[in-house]
Structures are given as structure tokens and as C-alpha cells.
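Troubleshooting log. The previous structure file for this entry was overwritten by mistake, so regenerating from the original sequence record. Sequence copied from the archived sheet and checked twice against the printout by T.R.
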Amino acid sequence: MTDGLVKLPGYERGVNIRGAPYDYRYPPKSSVGKRYMVALKYLIQETYEINNQTPVVILAHSMGNPYVINFFKLMPQSWKDMYIDSYLAIAGVFGGSAKAIRTLTSGETEGVPDLVLDPLIMREVERTAPTVYWLMPPPQVWGDTPFVFVNGRNYTAKQYSDMMLDQGNTKGPDLLNLISDTPLFEADIGVDVYCIHGANNPTPYQFKYGKGYPDVDPSTINGMGDGTVNQRSLELCKKFKRLKDYKVVEGDLSTHLEILQREDVIKYVGDHLTRSEKLDS
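Regenerated output below.
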């Protein structure tokens, strides 16, 4: 994505294309997250100043989108009116990802063979990261949808604490409670929003466990989405109060990470930057 954008006339890394990486293990309201929010504020203000007081376009991908939403909720409207041109959301995890449930239940190695990376060892690490709990599909979006099936019982988003205790994850409910007041999505964030995501790719949705639960791989039932984020979660971006454009891409290079390589998506972002530049000149 960045390699494509720096080819635009007048764009330069570190000047008017700048990165704001965050530590994905920590949610926005953690001490690490709070320091990040302060740093992001000053990065935006500095970018505004060194570019002739030009309002900044914020581009976020994946979990970066909930982070940005929480940032915007912290900032006064007067600050956003001065420093923010618009917000471009790509593949936002606005309603969680069912993969997070599988991660906490039986471990996630992202395709690395079990002989190389033991999912149960990874699970012990993953269960310590508050953001994995943050990314679980929230009950206010998913209601009574069952996600885990085992021994004649199923667990919904309203039963996460019971599920974790049944799995021996005794610290899980506390970590879940820790992020309970940190939203993944808010409709009114006080800025113009442009949204783009992939669709109609098989995406983990529900998980059936048998003997050995929770220390075994489940039978995964796929729904639709971008391969990582479920469709219902992605489509929440249609509910932004100041949504200005909504684009869905399908077919080749429409999965969660591959979307960043699509020429039409790079062009979409580039056209948006050019439009914003002309409006501000």
C-alpha cells in the first residue's frame, strides 16, 4: 500500500505519508495504549504543521480501526475540525472476529504447522493478551448467535465468561471485563468516514469441538467475510454517522491482508488523498 502511495506526485515517506504503529497486545485504555494516544495526537499535529497546516487523512487497517475510533472519541470536536480531513477505514474489525474465540479456546498459529509451532503453547501466550478478548464478537452485535459447540452445549457471545471457566481459562473473565468499556465501534466519531473492505471469502464463524476439548483443533464452520473478519463485523462501517463513501471488493486479493495489495484499492486511497489535497488548497 505505502509503496504505491509514495509514487503519487508530491508524496514522501516521513513527510506527508507517515506511519503510527502500535503494540497490538494492549488495548487503547491500557497504560501502553494511553501513551500511544498521546503520541498519535502529537504526530498528527506535527504532520499538519510541516505540511502547511493541511488537515490530515487518517488511514487505518484491521484492528487499527477500533484504535482510531477510540482515539477520535477522546479528541474534542474543535481539535478534529482543525487537524482531521477524513478517516479512511480498511477492513475494520468493528464487530469483532470469531477467530479470536478459537484463538482463546484452542490456540492459533496462523497456518504454521503444529510440528513447528504448538497451538497449545501459543494459546498460553494468546490468553494473556487483552486485545484478543477485545476482538471477540461482542454480544450487542451478535446477540444469541452460537459460536462454540461442544458435548451437546453451545456458547454464545453472552456466555464468554462461562465458556472460559469451563475451558480452564480462569483469568479470562477478568481480562474480558478489563476491555468491556472499550468499544470496537462507535457510529458518531465526529469526522468524515470512507470505508472499504473485502467480502464473500470463507471466514471462520463457528467451531465444533469433540473429545479432548479444548485442547484439540475444532471443526470450523465458515461464514462469509474477508477470511479473517466476519461480514457482519465489516459491514458495521455502513452505520458511521458521517459516512461519505462505502466500497466493497470481491474476488482476487480481497482477503484481510491481500486487500492492501489491490491496485484498485491503492488507486481509491490515492484518489482520496488527491481530492483532499485539492479541497484544502
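The mean pLDDT is 95. Archived copy saved in two places this time.
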